[in-house]
């Protein structure tokens, strides 16, 4: 039993060494350089705010919507009173 545990542990360590990693600073800078036109709730996409915060409906943290993701989706409709509905 001990031998199997050691083999599994060694295999796990070997696999983690093979996985390429991105330096933390590089990943952060790429994330920060992406344009965030608004923040929304994952459960209530009709909620849109200019900055971070909480959803007024369910109190979940808002998530950023990146400009390139918004262009890919392309399902936005204006309501006429200054709001937009995405679906």
Q: Helical content, roughly?
A: 25-40%
The description of the largest β-sheet is: 3 strands, antiparallel
Structural class: alpha+beta
Question: Over the alpha carbons, how many angstroms does the gyration radius reach?
Answer: 21 Å
| Count of extended strands | 5
Which range does the strand content fall in?
Answer: 15-25%
- The strand line-up of the biggest sheet is 2-1-3
Question: How widely separated are the two ends?
Answer: 54 Å
Low-confidence stretches: none
What form results from the Cα inertia axes? elongated
Any overview of this molecule?
- This protein is α+β, with helices and mostly antiparallel strands.
- The protein has a three-stranded antiparallel beta sheet. It has a two-stranded antiparallel ribbon with strand order 4-5.
- A hairpin with a 7-residue loop joins strand 1 (38-40) and strand 2 (48-49).
- It is 39% helix and 16% strand.
- It has helices at 2-18, 24-33, 67-73, and strands at 38-40, 48-49, 63-65, 76-78, 84-86.
- The mean pLDDT is 77.
Q: What is the gist of this entry?
A:
This protein has 87 residues and is of the alpha+beta class.
Q: Which terms summarize this structure?
A:
alpha+beta, 3-stranded antiparallel sheet, 16% strand
Secondary structure elements and their pairing?
Elements: H1 2-18, H2 24-33, E1 38-40, E2 48-49, E3 63-65, H3 67-73, E4 76-78, E5 84-86
Antiparallel strand pairs: 1-2, 1-3, 4-5
